[in-house]
Amino acid sequence: MPGRLCTILLFILLTGLCSRLGYAKQLPGQTLTIAIGLENYDFKPLFAQFTRKTGIQVKVVEFENNSLKSELLLRASNNALPDGIIVPADYMGLTALNLSEVPDDWLSTHLIDQVRMNIKANGSTLGIPIVFGNHLMLYYNRALVSDAAKNWQQLRIQHQEDGLKISWNYYEMYWYRAFLGTFGTSLILNGNANLDTSAMVSALRWYKSLKDEAWLDVECDYDCTVNQFLSGEVAYTINGSWMFQRFSEHFGDKLGVTQLPSLRGEPMRSYFSSHVMAFPDHALSGEKSTQLRTLSEFLQSLPVQTSLWSSINALPVDRRALEMLKIQGITQVEALISTLEYAQPMPNEAQMAFVWEAMLKGLTRHLAGVLDEHQAAHFMQHIVEKSISYEQEKKPGQ
Amino acid sequence: MSKKKSLVSELQLKVGAMVLALLTIALAHFAYSAWTQANKIAADTVAQRATSLSLDLKNRLAEFTFQVAHYSDHRILAELPLNLLYTQYALKEMRDLVYTSPLVKSVMISDGSPYIVEGYPLYTLHWATPSIIEHASSVINESARELMVRKLLISNKELGVADTTAGTLFIAVPLRQTLPSLIDPFRYTSVLFFELDVSQLAIELADYEALSIYSDKQMWFREGLEFEAGLNATHPIYERSDDGLNLSLSLSHQHSAYTREILYAIIRSALLALGVLIILIWYLAYVSRKVTSPMKQLEKYCVSLTSGNYEQNNANLEYEELKTLQKTLNELVSNVNTQVTQLKQEKVRAEQSELAKAQFLATMSHEIRTPMNAILGVFQLLRQHNRDPEDHSLVEQGYTSSQTLLALVNDILDFSKMEAGKLTLEVLAVDILQLCQEVIQEYQHLARDKQVTLDLTTELKPPLSVRLADPLRLKQILRNLLSNAIKFTEQGQVTLGIQGDKSQLIIEVRDSGIGMTPTQVASLFKHFHQADSSTTRKYGGSGLGLAIVKQLVELMHGEVTVSSAAGKGSQFRINLPLLSTKPTAQQSSSEAQPQIPNLRGVSVLLAEDNLINQQIFAAMMKKTGANLTLANNGKLAMDCFNEAQPDLFFVDIQMPVMDGIEVCQQVKNTDYRKPLIAITANVLPEDVSRYLSLGFDDFVAKPIDMQALFDTITRVMGRQARTQPGTAKPDISTLDNK
Prior knowledge:
The complex is a heterodimer.
Chain A: H1 2-25, E1 31-37, H2 44-54, E2 57-63, H3 65-77, E3 84-88, H4 113-118, E4 120-121, E5 124-125, E6 127-133, E7 136-141, H5 152-162, E8 166-167, H6 173-181, E9 188-189, E10 192-193, H7 198-212, H8 222-230, E11 236-240, H9 244-251, E12 255-258, E13 271-278, H10 289-300, H11 302-312, E14 315-316, H12 319-327, H13 331-338, E15 344-345, H14 351-367, H15 373-394
Parallel strand pairs in A: 1-2, 1-3, 8-11, 13-15
Antiparallel strand pairs in A: 3-13, 4-5, 6-13, 6-14, 7-11, 7-12, 9-10
Helix pairs in contact in A: 6-7, 7-15, 11-12, 14-15
Chain B: H1 7-69, H2 75-79, H3 87-100, E1 104-110, E2 116-120, H4 130-142, E3 150-155, H5 156-159, E4 167-178, E5 186-196, E6 209-215, E7 219-223, E8 231-238, H6 240-243, E9 247-253, H7 255-306, H8 320-385, H9 389-419, E10 428-431, H10 432-449, E11 452-458, E12 466-469, H11 471-487, E13 492-500, E14 505-511, H12 518-522, H13 533-539, H14 545-555, E15 559-565, E16 569-576, H15 585-589, E17 603-607, H16 611-622, E18 627-631, H17 634-643, E19 648-652, H18 660-668, E20 676-680, H19 685-694, E21 698-701, H20 706-723
Helix pairs in contact in B: 1-7, 7-8, 8-9, 8-16, 9-14, 10-11, 11-14, 17-18
């Protein structure tokens, strides 16, 4: 009887210990929350790999790029930001996010120079680069298109003669910027927003004319354009390098990738940038700093960087990995790299966040007929300056 | 000229009209009262409804204002004009506001700049209008310590909305940042404008309502069609002092919405009244039928009474009044029946008396004619044989007297026939002048005896002398008039004047006799009446002559007038509608002199019971040379007939043993086809017709006129000769009365 009692007590003790161990595994510090833009690479396989390797859970929340910024800013004021965000490098200019400065020793020593320069905002490194590129390309369906259009004139003719359509996320400023780039302007000039320009006026006029010509479904949002292309409803789509993997999986050899179409001989110029992981609300000073460093190291590790192409069809930020990729002679990789020819590096000044919003508001009003192209350009400049002025006004008090 | 009025239709008309008038008056009174009351109720209702709607609207807006007032401290929205980066969040917030609040049609933020900071839906970005900018600027500049949520009514014209007459109401919530400063606790950055969706205000209007809400400058909205001459009420929603906006509500109700039911009620009542009227008219018609039906029965009964059908009416009548009438009529009928029975008895007696009289007249006529036959026959024969002038004169007087007596008898018979309506006229072509000459000739010797000149004067042309007329009756008229004229003219002259045209014949008989007084003239044509009773004594006569003249003239559709002066003579004027015609051969041949037929070798049998008549007949026939056999009655005549059938067989109708009728029947039963001639004093036309229908070939009237006898013999023998050639026929060329 006493033996039996001992056995029971021992069972209870073991059960308690097991429960305690299980509880320790699910501590808050062991789960990281990451917000990413919807129009982005599918990082989930990497996070899954990370969790398998480290046991650290990663909860991913996706937002549309247009609303991601506002959501982050809103949450910033409520101390409700995620542990990390994977965003384009220009997000690092959002001071309201209170991004932690990343210690230099957190960064890989093998970063591509362009990337290393691109991750500094106002002289500070506020993010860890993960993938490189992120530029826009012209995808086309080889089953429908035998000879990919080189310019907008050819696209229009193919539309009229062969019914070949094109779509892109019309109201997304990252795309609009590629059209604006055709007219050779810089959104930031001498550290200041530079929107009220003739290039902006021309770009607005052209962009609106595409809408008015009614051969585009401008109301089709990002998901819609992706689905249209996947379903073969449209022959062309303009999308980012982050969609290369998904389209490749769907179309295989039938996927064509080429330079963005030119306008009257002038190439469209997309931004390219790196996607970085940043840490809002000074997360690196928090209790999850260790896990976040583990994640950072994991994402910059050569094996991960080397496997970026194979896992998510993204270009690595690690020079070694990129070189290894280049020498493999993969056609698609070569195409991807070739489309970078006319791409421009995206400024990551703090003002860029305002510039994106200002351009969206100005374009929206212009397309709605509220403002003409001159007024719209002026309006963009006006609201950017007002916001920047307010931003500067707030700083002393903060 | 008065129209026939029906008691029943008048009753229907008047009762119907009275009820219709009463119903109309009642209906008009009801309509007026209802109409007045409905108008009063309508006015009150509209006022109450306007107040109610106004308060509802005010409460609704107040509730909404309360609900959205807290947005004034919305940090993101308040900071949006200053921080672009909140744009997407603000847009989402604004979109949610529009989608979740039914009353919100759109939301926009103005910071007083020429640009709308943000707005949803897109069209609000157009609304950086002076009013919006001015209001936002004033709010920002004012920086009031108290939160002032205002209403703003802006014309659609300013906003560029299609309906330019209406306006758009905004609830303007100031957006402010909370500052730590005690002095300046708020910083107004912009104004959040809520465009209210009128359709969501839950103003449910009936189809007879029209609503408009307006400020002193601008209409907000109008719902429902405007009604002409509608009932209107206005009620303020906001005073300017309260909310910075003077907003009033004007409600209009369609007048007919209140009066429609009244109208329907009036129509229903009118239809009801019409129905009552129809039922009433039907009932009146029903009652009328119930009344008129027995009345018509009685009327029909009365008509049958007028037809002489005096029977009791036993119809079952419903109404007491009609029963009384029926009873009275039955009593009347009873009395009439009694009287009719008496009258019938009287009539029977009168008829019997009349029949007896007629029978008497006929008998007397026959009885008189029989001796007259002998007398006249004797005188005729004497006239033929006597050559001694003195005797001849006496014979002539006797002959004339017998003729007068015969005429008197004829007059009596004619008068009886005319009284009985049994006299019929012949229509033959008659030479009037010749006829007048003959009559004149008849009376010439009488006139000479009285030393009275008797003349015929005429302007009638010979072609117009021949007329369609009855010569016998015309002669009768002339004879009566001339004999009267000669009778009452002691000396002087009597003139017969004949005039006329194609269709009229005027006969005038003038005399210069004793004449008549007007009183005498007035009673001149009455029966058995002479101008003076002394006249009868002095001049004799039956008094029938002029009465017969008048009746004959009237029978010929003419007229007779008389003008006379006592002591100066008289003038009778007869106007007869006798048409002129062409002379006929017969008429022309009548002018031939009568001749005695030659009956030598012809056997003649006479059945006659009167010996004198036998003798006269034999004397008359003697001149003809016929072989005459006499039989005293019908039976003896038949014996003679059976022994040797004669060539001519004269049979008297009234005979003892066997009368003429039976003789005729027996003769007709044989194969005798020679002339059978009746001799009778029954000269009434119906008697003559009966004899001819029995089988007689002709007849000779008693008293026998010798010339008429010879004419009859000539006629029947000629007819016999034409039908049976070879038989004996008279030779009129060898014997004559000379």
